[in-house]
């Protein structure tokens, strides 16, 4: 949730930080490269319909950055 909170602040969203808590896990979630690529493909499809300007910004991205909680498994 720490990264969601950080992103929400960057987007000027108004989340109640007190509901998230102070302690954060350092556990990483392993994900496959295939999973990341499939999820990114779905995101692009949604953005193409919902926010075409944002879609144009990311349409040529081949290797999306992950939030630090995720780690590509080998």
* Spans where pLDDT lies below 50 across 5 or more residues: none
The major pleated sheet works out as: 2 strands, parallel
Number of strand segments: 2
- Principal-axis shape equals flat
Quaternary: single chain
The assigned structural class equals mainly alpha
Task: Identify the strand order in the major beta sheet.
Answer: 1-2
Roughly how many Å is the radius of gyration?
A: 15 Å
The whole-number mean of residue pLDDT values reads: 89
How many structural domains in the coordinates? 1
SSE run: HEHHE
Please report which band the strand proportion falls in: under 5%, 5-15%, 15-25%, 25-35%, 35-45% or over 45%: 5-15%
Q: How far is the first residue's CA from the last residue's CA?
A: 25 Å
Helix content: 40-55%
Q: Count up the helices.
A: 3
Report on the structure:
There is one protein chain. The protein is mainly α and 74 residues long. The chain has one domain (2-72). Helix content is 46%, strand content 8%. The protein contains three helices and two strands. It has a two-stranded parallel sheet with strand order 1-2. Helix 2 (33-50) runs antiparallel to helix 3 (52-58). The longest helix has 18 residues, at 33-50. The model has no long low-confidence stretch (mean pLDDT 89).
Features:
single chain; 74 residues; mainly alpha; two-stranded parallel ribbon; 3 helices; 8% strand; flat
């Amino acid at each position: 949730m720490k990264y969601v909170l950080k992103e929400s602040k960057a987007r000027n969203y108004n989340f109640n930080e007190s509901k998230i808590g102070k302690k954060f896990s350092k556990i990483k979630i392993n994900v496959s490269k295939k999973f990341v690529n499939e999820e990114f493909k779905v995101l692009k499809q949604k953005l193409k319909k919902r926010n075409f300007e944002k879609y144009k910004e990311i349409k040529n991205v081949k290797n999306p950055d992950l939030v630090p909680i995720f780690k590509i498994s080998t």
